[in-house]
Design a protein that fits this description.
By secondary structure, the protein is of the alpha/beta class. Residues 1-8 have low confidence and may be disordered. It contains 10 helices and 13 strands. The two termini are 24 Å apart. The longest helix is centred in the middle third of the chain and has 14 residues, at 150-163.
Length: 319
C-alpha cells in the first residue's frame, strides 16, 4: 500500500490475488460511493486457513494466521478507512479482523462466507445460487458484481472499431470460455452449438471471441467458421468483449462463464443466451444459470438492476 494522505470516504479492499474476486470488491466499493485502496493478504498456510474457521466460531481474532502488508500489522488508530471489503474465502477472516482493529470501520464481504459466523459481518453480498441464510445483514444478489462503467465500455468500443470498420447494426456476439470442474467443452459439442447459431442468425454480423480456457481443438473449429469478426485468444490477446456487450443485439455465452454472463446480464441491451456446456447435477453453476433464466435475464433481454440491493448495503455499512 502506497503511503498517501487520504481525505473523505475510503475503503480498504483486501484481495486474495484473484482478479475476479478483486473486481467484485472494487464494484462493491464503487457502489457504496467510496474511494479505495487495494492490498493483498494471504493465510500463512492451509492449516492457518482451516484454523480461522474455528477461531472465528469462538470469537477469537488471531492476526498471526495471516501475512499482512507493511502498515497493517499493528494498531490503526488514525486509519482513514470507513470500510474494509473482501471477496472470497481468502479474505473473509482478514476483513473481519482488520475492521475490528480499526474500530470504527464496517466490514463488508462479497460471496457467501460459509463456515464463518455470519452475524459478525456488517454486510454480506451473497449470490442467490449459494442459498444464503435469510439474515438482516445478508443482501442477496442474482449475479456476480462487475466493476465496469460507461467510460469502460466507450473505451472498449473505440478500441474495437480500430480493428473492425464494418457495420455493427446487427451484431451478434459469441463468447466461448472453456471447461472447468462443472463443465466440459468438446469439439462435437462446440460444432453443434456453432451450427445452431449460424442457422438461427442469417444476415447478421456474427462476431466471436475465445478465451484463455478454450481448448486448442475447439479454437481450431471456431477459426474455421465464416465470422464477420473473430478473436482467437491463443493468437491475439485483445479483448473485444466490452464492444460485444455494448453493441450486440444478441449475446451467446458459454454457461460456465459466470463472470461474462453476469456482465452481459447487467450491461448493454442484448438478449443473452447461455450455451449449456454444464455437467449434470445440482452444482452452483447450474443453479446460477437457472436463477438468471427464471429472472428473465438469460433467454431474455431483462437487465439486472442492483440499485435497491446497493441502497440496503449502504445502510448496513453506515453510509
Amino acid at each position: 500500500m502506497q503511503g498517501r494522505q487520504f481525505a473523505g470516504r475510503r475503503a480498504l479492499i483486501l484481495t486474495d490475488g484473484k482478479a475476479g474476486h478483486e473486481n467484485q470488491s472494487r464494484a462493491f466499493a464503487r457502489a457504496l460511493g467510496l474511494d479505495f485502496d487495494v492490498v493483498e493478504v494471504r493465510f500463512r498456510n492451509k492449516l492457518a486457513k482451516a484454523a480461522s474457521y474455528l477461531f472465528d466460531r469462538l470469537g477469537i481474532v488471531v492476526p498471526c494466521l495471516l501475512s499482512w502488508p507493511e502498515g497493517l500489522q499493528g494498531p490503526m488508530p488514525q486509519s482513514p478507512y470507513r470500510a474494509v471489503i473482501g471477496t472470497g474465502s481468502g479474505t473473509f477472516y482478514a476483513a473481519k479482523a482488520l475492521a475490528r482493529r480499526i474500530g470504527n470501520a464496517k466490514c463488508g464481504v462479497v460471496l457467501y462466507p460459509r463456515g464463518y459466523r455470519l452475524s459478525t459481518f456488517d454486510c454480506i453480498l451473497a449470490p442467490s445460487f449459494d442459498g444464503p441464510a435469510k439474515l438482516p445483514n445478508v443482501v442477496e444478489i442474482p449475479a456476480n458484481l462487475v466493476a465496469n462503467d460507461a467510460a469502460f465500455y466507450e473505451k472498449g468500443v473505440a478500441a474495437f472499431r480500430e480493428r473492425y470498420s464494418g457495420p455493427t447494426d446487427r451484431l451478434v456476439g459469441v463468447i466461448i470460455g472453456g471447461p472447468n470442474k462443472c463443465a466440459t467443452m468438446t469439439v462435437e459439442w462446440a460444432k453443434a452449438r456453432l451450427d445452431e447459431i449460424f442457422a438461427a442468425n442469417p444476415g447478421v454480423q456474427l462476431c466471436v471471441t475465445t478465451s484463455r480456457r478454450t481448448p486448442p481443438d475447439v479454437e481450431s473449429l471456431v477459426d474455421s467458421y465464416p465470422w464477420t469478426y473473430k478473436l482467437i485468444y491463443s493468437r491475439d490477446r485483445f479483448n473485444p468483449i466490452p464492444a460485444f456487450v455494448q453493441l450486440a443485439k444478441r449475446l451467446y455465452v458459454t454457461a460456465e462463464s459466470t463472470g461474462m454472463l453476469s456482465e452481459a446480464c447487467m450491461f448493454g441491451t442484448a438478449e443473452v443466451i447461455a450455451l449449456d456446456n454444464l455437467n449434470p447435477g445440482p452444482h452452483k453453476f447450474r443453479r446460477f444459470v437457472e436463477s438468471l433464466r427464471s429472472g428473465g435475464y438469460v433467454d431474455g433481454r431483462r437487465k439486472i438492476d442492483l440499485s435497491a440491493e446497493f441502497a440496503r448495503a449502504k445502510g448496513l455499512m453506515g453510509l
